[in-house]
Amino acid sequence: MAVDFKDIQQGYGTASGPVMQELLQQDALPLEPALCEKGNFFPEFKKVPFKRYFDPEFARLEMEHMWKTCWQVVGREEDIPEIGDRKLYEVGELSYIIIRSGSDEFRALQNACMHRGTRLCNGNSSGKSIKCPFHAWEWNVDGSLKNVPSRWDFPGVTDEAYRLPEAKIGRWGGFLFINPDPDAGPLEDALGVLPKHFSPREAEQRYTVVGIRKKMRANWKQAQEAFFEAYHVIETHANILSYNGDTQTRYDIWDDGKSQISRSITPSAIPSGHLGDDASRLQAAQDALKTFALPFPGVELPEIKSAETGRSEVAAWRREMMGKLLGVDFSKCSDSYMLDANQYFMFPNFWPWFGEGLPLTYQFTPYGSNPNECIMEARLTLPVPENGPRPPAAELIELDFDTPCSSAPALGIMASVFDQDFSNLPLVQIGLRSCRDDNISVTLGRYQECRIQAFHDMLDRKLGLK
Ligand code: FES
Ligand SMILES: [Fe+2]
What we know:
Oligomer: single chain
Largest sheet: 8 strands, mixed
CATH topology of the largest domain: Naphthalene 1,2-dioxygenase Alpha Subunit, Chain A, domain 1
Distance between the termini: 11 Å
CATH class of the largest domain: Alpha Beta
Strand content: 15-25%
Bound molecules: FE2/S2 (inorganic) cluster, fe (ii) ion
Radius of gyration: 23 Å
Number of strands: 19
Helix content: 10-25%
Shape: globular
Strand order of the largest sheet: 12-13-14-15-16-17-11-18
CATH architecture of the largest domain: Alpha-Beta Complex
């Protein structure tokens, strides 16, 4: 049963830093339709047992009732641009070859040889066929059988019966999704409000500039929950409080029983509510301006004229500077679109961000069958220039458990923020496992951590626990 969220305090604003909803109403330009949308769901208060993050039995339930039956993102079409290009997608012990089988056709093929089971694909690769390294059984890129050495010895092997089995594949916004369940409903059931909220410029008309695949010693849920809320900014990213509206963040959830989408919008260029009524809004605009300029050394910075208009001034500068640099017309984009961290989530693990404030995409999956480890993919994307051509996608940088993001210079200023976030995760995982009381549970903030509560509410429904 959903709760009436009118009874819940929705954020904390100050004289110098109003809550996100007020900032949206004060925007210098008309808001994009998505920014006018409000959630339709608020979860009941939820206690989440520590055990859920490390118990192998719970991980098994997730595998059986969620990963094997739900739509899940596996990457972007641009990752495999040519026919025959392929990448690996693995969740738990399930493994698929995600392959471009035609100029506008993709497949998710079983990654195990139909002769004696050898794994066929070990990572990004390309070629006209898929050949087993053991006895050279071979398939075409569409999964049809191409060749079996000594075929005379396999009288039962027919072309029809020996296609590589495939999972359902779905496409939205330049992203590829699979569903291992042959009886699954359409991808649209899981996308919920995403297609309504995202225009092509926020999804398919983008390309990956830089990205990582980071192994982490944390349960996949625990890792992604570090990104559901801005509550952690006060301690984990204390260096950005002067220009980041953490307590002013707006949270929305849409849940129709089949899909769950949630969103947080954290304003930039205003001071955190933790800094009180007297915090400087002028300083907030100046600090935001400097941070936004970091990836563009040498770019000219305007003088911020006033505290009142500072946020809009930073947005105006960003519209013009990025417009010129990227060959994209941002002149009609709202201040919020250009500045704020607007982060969407689709159950169970897909995180497409919205707008140009911080255009990231995340994906979290368990690593093998160990509930204490996961892999996070994170990409920074940019809009494709309006007069083309589409720039090639950057290959994701592989980062092992103990390799910090700061070792990848291509990540620029994102590296230090990610390293701040990632530093907590193994500590949480160790702490969760260290308690004597089996019934202990996490204590979640009613509003700022509502997306975590909603996520577990949906998870309970999927696993048949509710
Ligand atoms: S196991 Fe693949 S060809 Fe024999
Ligand atoms: Fe963070």
